[in-house]
Amino acid sequence: MNLIEKIIASHSKHPVVKPGDIVDIHLDVRAARDFGGANVVKNIVDNGLEIDDPSRTFFTFDCNPTGSDQKYAVNQHICRLFARKNGIRVYDIDKGIGTHILIHEGLAHSGSTAVTTDSHANILGAVGAFGQGMGDQDIAAAWSKGKVWFKVPPSVRINLNGKRPEGLTAKDIVLNLLDRFGANSLLGYSVEIYGEEVERLTLDERITIASMGTEMGAITLLFTPSPEILAYSSARAGKEIALVAANPDAEYENSFDLDISSFRQRISRPGKPHDTVPVDEVRRTKIDSAFIGSCTNGRIADMRATAAVLKGRKVAPGVVLKIVPSTDEVWNQMHREGLLDIFKQAGALVSNAGCAGCAAGQVGQNGPGEVTVSTGNRNFPGKQGKGDVYLGSPEMVAASAVSGYITTPDQIPAEPAVFSMQEKMQRMEKAAREKPVTSKPTEVEGRAWFIQRDNIDTDMIFHNRYLAITDISQMGQYTFDNLQGYEDFAKKAQPGDIVVVRKNFGSGSSRQQAVDCFKALGIQALLAESFGAIYERNAINAAFPIMTCPSWEALELKNGDKIRVSFETGLITNLANGKSVQGEKFSEVQMEIYQNGGLF
What we know:
alpha/beta, Aconitase, domain 3, globular
């Protein structure tokens, strides 16, 4: 077996597993963040569930550790009260990013399993652990059962051959991988990385690379721990950790041989993490702000690299540099080594540990027309604010901050570039004209089609005889023409309608047309008691609003009633009688993709 198969098999009742198998996996760690944690609590309480093993169950408050947002502050308080009652440990606002804490505390290590509400849980692949981000219901089930069902993914192997060029950072390595594989060619795969230079990668470097597996669409990005990293995990766990590695004859769906000596310094252009280019293509692009931190580049090695560039220099006039370490342990190490003094003397703002600009966190957001160069992992529109965000290494970001424009440490000018306020205002006004900030509605109203049936599969929604159709505008006419009693749905449906169904909607095949046909008709949203797993992912990735709700009984819904749906709160109201039910609100990821207009 390969690495992911060995980890899953060792945590299931099956001695051997293979791609496509669906198995129950025992979870060594079950965590929830301040984002989503309150919903996990609600699921536990509403369903009368108990906690399987409090010693393996944790809260990690990292999205907004300053409590500067009222909603986060309320959610954190809900989680604290629940934790006290149930003996659950809280890694509170003074600790830092949850996935990093799991590594620091020795909770995640070679061969272990962990789930959390963080979509970048695949960071744990840096120590050879299987980490998976999941939704509120999955996490609640994991807390109650101690396990979740999971489909064994296919695996690919990436071999990085050759010698690593001088000055090539871990961020450059993963940006080169993004350039090669894009956002979806590794979609749904477990990826293992090997090579002579890979064996020399430090833990901090592996974390940087593993964290951006999400941006490649991978389930996880796994490294086999080196002896040094295995010793680190053992010391942190307080026990001897055995190495879990792929068998020599492990099978992979594909294997890629890449020459790391051909990798170059790269940077992601605004809007798409995988839109990476050599730095020279955007060198001297004017910037307004710079950010160093996030789960991708907030480690002590990143801070040391930043200090090496900033020492004896000042942030350019008119530029704001924000620095946020990943954990309090890193913050304290920065203090002991004198890095904080270097940062402050350079004119940087340094915050307490956390996720920072991601997820509208405590620091790092930018405004319309603002240009930021960041060490983060995502630069989707609106992710780190309303301006443009470039992604690069800590060294590149620090060099750009003192230069006033995008550059590298070897080309920092003797005097920083200074841009006039008039130039900045003109640029902001131009951005406002050319790129108006728009957002999709988070609340919709429409006429309900109440179809009281379970198990409506994709052949009933969009029959396979129409699969040759590729033009979305032509798909609407065939919607439900294989669902008995609703063959004329497409003729009667109106733009703005909302479809309401029972359990397991969209089971069956993986066809995207079963989602796109509703979009073609102008259907505003689709509500169900539950969805087929593939259908749910297809709809979310296509930015088609779907929402689950345990039951429709309290709504007293009749076909044709007008209903209101809030994607932010999950509240569903029947405007005909004023009755409401609580559905599952959009997750951070679903809302982000919805506002982005789709996965890409």
